[in-house]
Amino acid sequence: MTGGRPRQLVVVLGTGTEVGKTWVSAHLLRDLRAEGHEVSARKPAQSFGPDDRTTDAHVLAGATGEEPTDVCPRHRWYTVPMAPPMAADVLGRPPFTIADLVVETVWPVPPPDIGLLETAGGVRSPQAIDGDAITLLEELQPDLALLVADAGLGTINSVRLSLEAMDRGAHVATPLVYLNRFEPADDLHRRNRTWLAGELDVEVISSLPALVHRLRPS
Length: 218
What we know:
By secondary structure, this protein is an alpha/beta fold. It has helices spanning about 20-35, 55-65, 70, 85-90, 100-105, 135-140, 155-170, 185-200, 210-215, and strands at about 10-15, 40, 45, 75-80, 115-120, 125-130, 130, 145-150, 175-180, 205. The strands form three sheets. It has a six-stranded parallel sheet, sandwiched between helices. Strands 3-4 form a two-stranded parallel ribbon. A two-stranded antiparallel sheet has the order 6-7. α1 (about 20-35) packs parallel to α2 (about 55-65).
């Protein structure tokens, strides 16, 4: 990782695919930027459908004011909707390692107040030929790991499995859990939040304003 480490480095992971990591990340960055904080986003590698005109890098860049190729290097864009190293193999492109991704993660100079790095897929999804999101997390040693999860059925299981995997592999502080698509009027959503916060002794946030407040640089 070059270009100077952000004052606060946040790595965003998901309990699975399509839990809303990019949506949450973009809204978080947009709100922090609106408050006057310098923000930056990075996605070391991304894969998407060949007909997709808007990628995660586009969404994140729109939130920070950067270029999509600053967010994700152009040679790490893979037009096959699979885990990035698998997509690279399908496309006949060279394999890459976690170390490659770390070296290619270049932050602005001077360093931003907050830098947000989004991984691909879930916590055990391959990010390179030699590691998954937990491997990348361990290499980066961020100030905070933000685990994004759904709020409904299956939430407790997916969060517990993700946290257990992160605890075994990454050796980082207990992450912050964000329940995306949380509906305060939904009894199951409320019970899931209460169970996770009580039984796992983990910080659980379920609203974007509260998440912005939690990540706001002091």
